[in-house]
Design brief:
The chain contains 17 helices and 25 strands. It is globular, with a radius of gyration of 24 Å. By secondary structure, it is α+β, with helices and mostly antiparallel strands.
Length: 519
C-alpha cells in the first residue's frame, strides 16, 4: 500500500505537478454534485490506493468490528440490567427496543467504521462508528470521477489495473434485500380508517412499494440522497426524498412530500438518514408540550408516545401525527419498514466506547474479542468526576479528546492539543456538567497530498482517516478523508480523498469496481 502511494507521488512529480490534470479535476468538481451546504467540497489531488493485501486486511477488520457491535446491540436488547449502563433517556430506550422486523438478518443495516490506520505496520485505532446518517459515498464518487482524465493517473494506470468503487448500487440491493426479509411491510388501502394492515411481503404480486429517504434536509447532503433516489428508481422501485417535517401519519398510513416533485405520497419503507438524536430532540420537545396540555396521549394499546388530535371526523377523532411523531407512530404500529431501526443507536452513540471497555461487556465477549478491544479501542470513559481524575485530565490536554455522547460531523468535539492549558481547564469544567465522554487522543498517520488548485500548491503531510463501509455486515468499500488539524472534518480544512483499488480481484467484493477511463 505504501509502495503504491510512493510510486504514484513519483509519477506526479515526474509530470511537474500535473498542472493540466489538476485544472481539469477542479473544473469537473466545480460543476459536480460534490457539495456540502451548497459549497463544493475540498479534495486532495493524490488518491488513496488500496491493493489486494490492504483490502483483505480492511475487510477482516470491518467484519470483526461489525460482529462485535452486533453482539453488543443484541445484548442491549436482551438484558435490562446491561442496557441501563448506556445511560439512554427513557424515551430513547423505548425507541431502541422497538422491533425492526429484520432482527434475525442484521442489527445494523448500514454503517461506516472510521479508523486511524497506520499504513506502516497495519495498526489502527477506532475513531467512531457511523450508523445513523452514514454518508459520503457521493463525495468519493465525484472526486474519483474528477481524476479520470488526469495525466498522472494515466501514467500510473499504464503499470497497474485501477478500479473505482461503486458504493450506491450495492446499498440499494442490500436495502431491498432487508426489506424483503422484513415482516413490517404494509399493504393498507389508502384512506382506510384505523385499519391494521396486512403485513405483505415486498415481492407480493401487485404490490408496488414506495421508499422514502428521510432526513432533516436543512442538514442533509441532498445531492447524495437524490443520487440514491435515482438508483432506487433504476432498480425499478419508486422512491422519494422527504424532510422529516413533511411526514404525516393518519389512519394507519405514513405519508411524505417529495423534495423535488412536491407531491405527497404514502410510504412503505424508510431509508433513515435522519440521525436519532435530532429525531429525539423533536420528540422530547413534543413531550414537553404534552406535559403542558398541548399534546394528547395515545391510546395505551398503541404505546406511550404522544400525538395531536386535530379535528373530529364523523363520530370519531381524526388523529394526526406529524414530523418525528409520525415516523415513530408508524414504526410503533408496524405500518412502515424502518431501515435502519432505532437499534442502530447502540453502536452510533459514543457511549459504545465506554461500554467496550466496561467489565459487563468484557464478560460476555470471547478472548479474541477482548484482545481486539484492547488493541484497537482507545481508552474511553464518561467525563464525570466519578469516572476519571479530572485534575489529571486538565494537566495533560494533549493526551485527550472530549466528545458529546451523541451528534455528528465533530459538532462539540474538542481535542486538548488545540487549547492552551487555561482554556482547556475551563472547557473541562463546562463540559463535565453535560453528556460527554473523554477519550485517549490518537495520533494519526500522515501521507502527502495537495489541492488541485492553485496548481503550485505543494505536497504536504496530511492526517488520514479511513472509513470502512459495511452493508448488512458485509464490507462494501472505503472512504478516505485527510486534514492538517487535530480534527479531520470537511468544514475545518479537511479534504476528501478518492479511494482507488489497485491490481485487486474485482470479483471478490460486493462493491462494483469500475475501470477508470484514463489509460
Amino acid at each position: 500500500m505504501l509502495a503504491l502511494q510512493e510510486s504514484y507521488v513519483e509519477d506526479f512529480l515526474a509530470l511537474g505537478g500535473d498542472e493540466l490534470g489538476r485544472l481539469a479535476a477542479q473544473e469537473y468538481l466545480n460543476s459536480s454534485t460534490a457539495r456540502y451546504h451548497d459549497e463544493i467540497i475540498a479534495m486532495g489531488y493524490i488518491p488513496k490506493l488500496f491493493d489486494q493485501a490492504s483490502l483483505d486486511f480492511l475487510e477482516a477488520a470491518a467484519s470483526q468490528t461489525y460482529g462485535l457491535l452486533d453482539k453488543i446491540t443484541r445484548r442491549y436488547l436482551e438484558d435490562a440490567v446491561y442496557r441501563k449502563l448506556f445511560r439512554f433517556s427513557p424515551l430513547l430506550e423505548q425507541m431502541v427496543l422497538l422491533p425492526s422486523g429484520y432482527d434475525t438478518y442484521c442489527s445494523i443495516p448500514i454503517c461506516r467504521i472510521d479508523i486511524f490506520l497506520d499504513e506502516r505496520d497495519g495498526s489502527f485505532k477506532f475513531c467512531e462508528f457511523n450508523t445513523d446518517g452514514t454518508s459520503a459515498m457521493n463525495e468519493d464518487r465525484e472526486v474519483v470521477n474528477s481524476l479520470s482524465g488526469a495525466p498522472v493517473l494515466g501514467e500510473f494506470s499504464s503499470k497497474h489495473r485501477i478500479f473505482a468503487q461503486e458504493l450506491f448500487d450495492p446499498w440499494v440491493e442490500t436495502f431491498l434485500e432487508i426489506y424483503k426479509k422484513s415482516f413490517i411491510v404494509m399493504d393498507t388501502p389508502m384512506g382506510t380508517p384505523g385499519c391494521d394492515s396486512t403485513l405483505t411481503p415486498m415481492d407480493t404480486p401487485g404490490f408496488a412499494p414506495i421508499i422514502a429517504i428521510v432526513d432533516y434536509l436543512e442538514h442533509a447532503v441532498i445531492d447524495e440522497q437524490l443520487e440514491y433516489r435515482n438508483r432506487f428508481e433504476a432498480a425499478g422501485v419508486s422512491c422519494i426524498v422527504c424532510d422529516v417535517s413533511t411526514l404525516e401519519y393518519r389512519d394507519g398510513v405514513l405519508y411524505g412530500t417529495d423534495v423535488s416533485s412536491k407531491t405527497t405520497q404514502r410510504i412503505d419503507a424508510v431509508y433513515r438518514r435522519a440521525v436519532t438524536y435530532e429525531l429525539l430532540e423533536e420528540l422530547e420537545r413534543c413531550s414537553a408540550e404534552q406535559r403542558d396540555g398541548v399534546m394528547a396521549q395515545r391510546n395505551s394499546s398503541r404505546g406511550p408516545f404522544p400525538c395531536t388530535v386535530t379535528t373530529v371526523q364523523g363520530n370519531r377523532p381524526l388523529v394526526l401525527f406529524t414530523g418525528a411523531q409520525a415516523l415513530l407512530a408508524a414504526v410503533v404500529d408496524k405500518k412502515v419498514c424502518l431501515i435502519g431501526s432505532f437499534q442502530t443507536q447502540v453502536a452510533h452513540s459514543k457511549a459504545i466506547f465506554c461500554m467496550l471497555h466496561h467489565p459487563s461487556t468484557l464478560e460476555f465477549l470471547s478472548e479474541e474479542e477482548r484482545a481486539f478491544i484492547k488493541e484497537h479501542v482507545p481508552y474511553t470513559t464518561w467525563l464525570k468526576e466519578d469516572s476519571i481524575d479530572i485534575a489529571m485530565v486538565k494537566a495533560s490536554p494533549e493526551k485527550w479528546i472530549i466528545k458529546p455522547v451523541d451528534g455528528y460531523g465533530t459538532m462539540g468535539v474538542h481535542a486538548g492539543q488545540s487549547f492552551d492549558a487555561d482554556t482547556w481547564s475551563k472547557l473541562i469544567d463546562e463540559m463535565i456538567c453535560k453528556d460527554y465522554i473523554i477519550q485517549e487522543y490518537c495520533t494519526q498517520f500522515q501521507t502527502l497530498n495537495t489541492l488541485p488548485v492553485p496548481t503550485n500548491t505543494p505536497l504536504e503531510p496530511h492526517n488520514i482517516l479511513t472509513g470502512l463501509y459495511c452493508y448488512a455486515g458485509r464490507f462494501a468499500g472505503i472512504f478516505t478523508r485527510a486534514g492538517r488539524d487535530a480534527l479531520i472534518v470537511g468544514f475545518r480544512g479537511g479534504l476528501t480523498i478518492g479511494s482507488l483499488l489497485v491490481d485487486c480481484d474485482e470479483s471478490k467484493y460486493d462493491v462494483r469496481n469500475v475501470p477508470l477511463l484514463a489509460k
